[in-house]
Amino acid sequence: MLAAMRSRRRVLLRGVLGLALVAAVFAWALPQIASYGSVGRQLGTVSTAWAAALAAGAVLDVLTVALPWRSLLPQLSWPGAVGFTQASTALTIVLPGGAPLGMAISFGLLRRLRVRAGEAGFAVALTGLWSQVMILLYPLVGAALVLGSGRLSTATVAIAGVSAAAAAAIGLVALAALRSRAAAHWLGETARRVAAPVARLLRRPEPTWSGRALVRLRQERLGHLRRRWPALTATTVVNQLSAYVVLELSVHAVGISGGKLPWTEVFLAWAIGRLISSLPLTPGGIGVVELGLIGTLVGFGGPRAHVVAAVLLYRGLIVVPTLVVGGAALVWFRFGGRPATPQPEPSPD
Predict the structure, then answer these.
(1) What residue ranges do the domains of the chain occupy?
(2) pTM: predicted TM-score of the whole model, two decimal places
(3) Higher pLDDT, 69 or 153
């Protein structure tokens, strides 16, 4: 009981500090870069054609989020896959907790969609792993694309190197877990220790899985992974790059030409912003992602008011549709979706 109270206090404190950071970014830091009046004038120049393109990009971003999940769980319908992914993402935007919270919510919503516990846990683990490794690799790809321009800073090179090293470490641990029973056991025990505080925060029973359960799941699902990993990789890339497309459209919509900010530099800025958003600094990375994107693009020579307008437009198109669609999905899950009926797990082949 005492441990649960301490955990809730830590989460509350982190939430308060996160909100203070968001307020500082929007009330003080961004106006130092460009006044909101000048930013508003730039947003007012967005034409009807560009607005339509931006709306299409936002819709594409919402729809493609279902692709990785359907590659692993083809029994999911498109509405179901979109609904539960947007619902879990919306909750991680408004609640502190980061990736562990999102994974716990995704598992619970998949169970309400009548996905078996083993399949749901396997899909949550794999989509989370594939997504994080890709996010860690994008800064390295972006740095390689910009390398020849001579506009690559030492700090950006360091970020790319550290994130690539982290991706390699995660990949090696995952590979070891797939190839070794001992590594799978260790990974399962570690996941249980990470998930337990999240369960206490949500006032749910602590997870019952263990390292032994992951070893058993590995034996049951290894063949499935061998068949599905190419599709999972391709759909994860498509899903994540849809957000880059929205940023690129936002940059051009406010009047920044490709000559001023080439697509390679926009991609690198997006990659750094994506990396920042994966860190549990503020819910949804709000505030810190904007600051990271703006700092990178201004550093590449983008006009300040134009850049701030483009980044705020991009973030609005990414965050607001998720909150709307995710909120509607949560209402459906709460009042319209039927709880999962327990189903027996299939025995290993």
Answers:
(1) 19-332
(2) 0.85
(3) 69
